[in-house]
Amino acid sequence: MTESLDPLTDADAHLISLEGIGKSYGNILALRDITMAVDNGRVTCVLGDNGAGKSTLIKILAGLHQHDEGTLRVMGAERTLSSPREALDLGIAAVYQDLAVVPLMPVWRNFFLGSELTKGAGPFRRLDVQAMKEITKRELAEMGIDLRNVEQPIGQLSGGERQCVAIARAVHFGAKVLILDEPTAALGVKQSGVVLRYILQARDRGLGVIFITHNPHHAFPVGDRFLLLKRGRSIGYYEKKDVTLQELTTQMAGGAELTELAHELEQLNLS
Ligand SMILES: Nc1ncnc2c1ncn2[C@@H]1O[C@H](COP(=O)(O)OP(=O)(O)O)[C@@H](O)[C@H]1O
Ligand SMILES: [Mg+2]
User: Fold this and answer.
1) How many C-alpha atoms does 257 have within 13 Å on its Cβ side?
2) Which of 150, 215, 249, 265 allows an S-S link to 108, with CB 3.0 to 4.6 Å?
3) Mapping DSSP to helix (H, G, I), strand (E, B) and coil, where does residue 10 land?
4) What pTM, to 2 d.p., does this model score?
5) Rounded-to-integer distance, Cα 245 and Cα 36, Å
6) Between these two residues, 144 and 205, which has the higher pLDDT value?
7) What are 155-165's pLDDT values in tens digits?
8) Contact 97, 186 (CB under 8 A)
């Protein structure tokens, strides 16, 4: 495996750059010294097991939590994101695993939830149902999502389809950065494939995508760079050309620790 990246070159040119980011919850150190970058039209994967700090990292980027060490830059400007609103206004949209949808409401209602289109003025103002249905249909079609009926309650869609609707929604509302927290974790092979395809669609539309997963087999085919987290620390940060799926898998499985241990044992000169 070659050297880790130097993500600090051109920090200004990145959509988002993190440098030495750390976060504690009381005396629990959830993240420490994290450095990574997110670019237009690139997929940055964050890999790690449970408790690695993946969710903490995206909460910092989505404005739900604030970092207490290091520097976060969004489009070159140093920031601390103090609310989800602030993150959204900067074009950072997060899609969570447990999607905030209203299961009985139709797909189009969920698509526009909180940002409903209206027509008319004053007492004549009402929801522009027709426009919302048409836009939902069009946006989904443009992402290659074939939903027969946007009237269908979103609760009837598969988990994968719901993730895809959420991605299309973020794209429609102007996200520049799309954060996906374990979108494939609860899905089978086929549905995971569908979600992975939409990740590439979002990338091809020029978004910077942050894809969080514990599965290197999902990350490797779609990722341009990979940050590996373990117990809050980075254990590697690679460009795709500098790493193989095998190496990612080995590192995730603690291969690096094993190598280190072997090395230490060697130095003890036990033989
Ligand atoms: N709100 C919180 N309060 C206290 N500890 C937390 C909180 N959120 C996460 N942690 C701790 O921070 C560490 C990283 O958690 P998390 O970011 O959720 O990891 P992951 O998403 O990779 O599973 C864990 O040890 C977890 O217990
Ligand atoms: Mg998590």
Assistant:
1) 9
2) 150
3) coil
4) 0.84
5) 20
6) 205
7) 888 877 888 88
8) yes
Domains of the chain by residue range: 11-99+172-261
The residue type found at 174 is: G
Pair of tokens at residue 227:
């940050």
Using CB distances shorter than 6 Å, the residues near ligand 1 are: 25, 28, 30, 48, 50-56
Task: Report CA(21)–ligand 1 centroid distance (Å).
Answer: 15
Instruction: List, as one string, the DSSP characters of 208-253.
Output: EEEEEES-HHHHHHH-SEEEEEETTEEEEEEEGGG--HHHHHHHHT
Tokens of 124: 């004549």
Q: What would the mean pLDDT of 176-202 be, rounded to a whole number?
A: 87
Pocket test for ligand 1, best of 34, 50, 55 (most atoms within 8 A of CB): 55
Among protein residues, the one with the nearest Cα to ligand 1's atom 2 is 25
Q: Which CATH number fits domain 11-99+172-261: 3.40.640.10, 3.40.50.720, 2.60.120.200, 3.40.50.300?
A: 3.40.50.300
Residues in the chain: 271
